[in-house]
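User: Let's play a game. I give you a shape written as tokens, and you guess the letters that built it. Ready? Here's round one.
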């Protein structure tokens, strides 16, 4: 029987985003039902598998995004979809890398829930991009979040400090304003998704502080 850490590693080793989402939901369901033990024997990869696209650039080389037109909204959604994909892997890597026999179940409850919700977020954003005539991978993205994770590969408290970086990258503090701007632009569909993400992320902040 695969352990929770084995299921986490399966997600990390999966490049296809849709399959990553599917495996995340399956692993989360198995853990909620307590159908799997915690510890396996494998170690997580240094970096998660990634699809061929999007092209990854340094954060400073990314174009600025504006919400003025549809192209700007697509760029925003694409950037958020990329952040959510990284957040899926950050959550599962946290579980696979730092689990011990002494780790309380509450830690896994928190981070499995986070991973499950991040997978939902990426899926919602990907569908919305498709509805707008684009797709995840159609625009460049940056690799800054995972670089921060690599620097804390042996430090649980340091890794937990990466969580605020994820939230900052999302612009969580300005999400309500962004939702309003999307609504004023007539993009109610995107606004609903960002509001859903904002609501879920409040719980993720708490998980990072426990």
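Assistant: Ready! My guess for every position:
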């Amino acid at each position: 029987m695969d352990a929770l850490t084995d299921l986490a590693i399966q997600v990390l080793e999966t490049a296809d985003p849709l399959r990553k989402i599917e495996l995340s939901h399956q692993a989360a369901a198995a853990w909620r039902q307590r159908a799997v033990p915690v510890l396996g024997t494998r170690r997580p990869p240094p970096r998660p598998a990634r699809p061929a696209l999007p092209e990854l650039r340094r954060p400073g080389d990314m174009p600025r995004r504006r919400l003025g037109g549809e192209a700007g909204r697509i760029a925003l959604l694409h950037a958020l979809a990329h952040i959510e994909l990284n957040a899926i892997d950050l959550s599962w890597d946290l579980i696979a890398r730092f689990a011990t026999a002494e780790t309380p179940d509450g830690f896994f409850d928190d981070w499995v829930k986070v991973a499950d919700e991040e997978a939902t977020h990426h899926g919602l954003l990907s569908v919305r991009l498709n509805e707008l005539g684009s797709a995840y991978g159609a625009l460049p993205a940056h690799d800054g979040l995972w670089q921060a994770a690599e620097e804390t590969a042996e430090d649980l408290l340091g890794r937990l400090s990466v969580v605020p970086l994820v939230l900052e990258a999302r612009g969580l503090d300005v999400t309500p304003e962004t939702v309003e701007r999307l609504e004023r632009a007539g993009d109610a569909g995107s606004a609903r998704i960002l509001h859903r993400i904002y609501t879920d992320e409040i719980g993720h902040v708490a998980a990072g502080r426990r």
